[in-house]
Amino acid sequence: MTWRIGIDLGGTKTEIAALDPGGAIRLRRRVPTPPGYEATVTQIAAMVAGAEAEIASTATIGIGIPGSENPTTGLIRGANSTCLNGQPLARDLAAAIGRPVRLANDANCLAMSEFHDRPGSGFAVILGTGVGGGLVVEGRLVQGRNRVAGEWGHNPLPWMTADEHPGPACWCGQRGCIESFLCGPALAADADGPGARDASTLPARAAAGDARARAALDRHTDRLARALAALINVVDPEVIVLGGGLSNMAHLYEDLPRLIPRHVFSDVCTTAIEPARHGDSSGVLGAARLWP
Ligand SMILES: [Zn+2]
């Protein structure tokens, strides 16, 4: 039984947590992420050294990152903290810390924090400024041959209507990606026009009778239901957990179970749709759980 350290490397903040051999959080700290790649590596190594001095033990090291690691070259790609892209982060951290580290993206860390202790399969969805996902089967993260397992946000929106086709241009180079319809800025823009980015007030406005807010939320829920139905047709997980900023919208947990079965290729659909249990802690907890 060993201690585990989890690190959540974000664009603005870096968080570290140490879990004792029983899985309880014994230390947790959050500091600003420094600008630049070398400063980031140096700071993470220093945070690990400080944490291990405090717990008086060494630990396994798991790190949640934006983006993912190319499985052949070990170089980071697709990170919105762009100083990480093209860098051999795991190799450099292992050299700085003196032992191997494991990396996974934030959606995979959410999946591990939610499902490491559950039987069967679970899919975790992040609905925020981006849309991503992670798959855990029998407590193990499925990263996939190309390390893109779960990257459902860059499949096209399923069962597009004539109005929706071909969909908005996505930053990834494709059109009509699920992310480009379902991310927070897309929902805000659907309600309030191009340039709007904050969707957080829409549920309250809809409840107060704002028809534009209501219509945008209804379109969003219908599209999310189609996107999740297509996912169920491939993976059929026991449970789908929603995390990220938009997962706070309470109507999703009432409306999705009603809307999803229309498109599932089965005469029964009892897939549970649940909010994430660990909220803000899921990044560090899931990263720590990258080691068994
Ligand atoms: Zn895309």
Automatic annotation (TrEMBL):
This is ROK family protein. One of its GO terms (molecular function) is hexokinase activity. SUPFAM superfamilies: Actin-like ATPase domain. It comes from the Bacteria. InterPro entries: ATPase_NBD (IPR043129), ROK (IPR000600), ROK_cs (IPR049874). It holds the Pfam family ROK.
